Amino acid sequence: xxxxxxxxxxxxxxxxxxxxxxxxxxxxxxxxxxxxxxxxxxxxxxxxxxxxxxxxxxxxxxxxxxxxxxxxxxxxxxxxxxxxxxxxxxxxxxxxxxxxxxxxxxxxxxxxxxxxxxxxxxxxxxxxxxxxxxxxxxxxxxxxxxxxxxxxxxxxxxxxxxxxxxxxxxxxxxxxxxxxxxxxxxxxxxxxxxxxxxxxxxxxxxxxxxxxxxxxxxxxxxxxxxxxxxxxxxxxxx
Length: 238
Ligand code: B12
Ligand code: SF4
Ligand code: SF4
What we know:
By secondary structure, this protein is of the alpha+beta class. It is built from 9 helices and 4 strands, in the order H-E-H-E-H-H-E-H-E-H-H-H-H. A 4-stranded antiparallel β-sheet has the order 1-2-4-3, with helices on both faces.
């Protein structure tokens, strides 16, 4: 049945799926989740590439203008669970209602699933999707989903010659060691009046891995526009 549900999600643009047994999660993840019933499953859903945004554009008129991606993803995952596991009880951990505190480190779960490897600009990367994927839903459920094995999608930075992302960052915020990324510098530059990173990330665009999955202009503008709005609000910039 997981196969049928995954196929349904993929048809809707949500093409990355992982299922964890709650009992097998590392303690930090488990405790952030509030130590739920160990018999539950944790379903992680993501998207890679452009398919999701195309579905969203097609349904734009019926989605809330502020958070179309979260609204669409929640609806699709909820409908898929109901259709494939009628009677199952499911709780969304992510996305959460607006303003709710951050719950789980999604990249940490992505690393457990095998999707995430650190890139110098801090968005996760793998050899299949490059840096063009993200996490769209995280659900605790009693549906009898089969746990998925960790996948090996490959860590391209280790063998990247020239590392073009480093030189492409106009703020000089990147270091070959992803852990040394200077977030403060990056954010300062993004907020500057003449910034070339207001609605994108030049380093991410310079990465040669999986360029065929690179987000379209409108998708980039939407997600970077959202994060820029959050940054402006934090800094009290009108
Ligand atoms: C907080 C947050 C942000 C904040 C970070 C500012 C801050 N210092 O708090 C802001 C709003 C700037 C942000 C922006 C973006 N984010 Co963000 N963000 C998160 C979030 C909600 C929590 C990360 C966290 O606190 N982890 C836990 C702590 C302990 O780990 P940490 O490594 O110390 O966390 C720090 C860094 O991760 C950093 N950070 C978080 N996100 C990003 C993204 C980038 C590119 C960088 C440079 C740093 C950064 O800030 C964290 C707190 O200091 C996660 C979702 C989640 N729940 O995990 C998404 C997440 C990490 N972001 C993501 C993305 C894609 C972005 C954006 C590129 C835009 C977008 N939404 O498409 C932008 C661009 C960043 C930039 N260059 O400005 C994705 C990454 C996907 C992936 N493939 O890895 C995530 C996983 C969300 C998702 N649903 O997929 N983000
Ligand atoms: S350009 Fe090279 S080092 Fe930079 S993110 Fe892409 S693969 Fe990694
Ligand atoms: S958003 Fe711009 S400043 Fe920040 S890491 Fe990317 S290229 Fe550098």
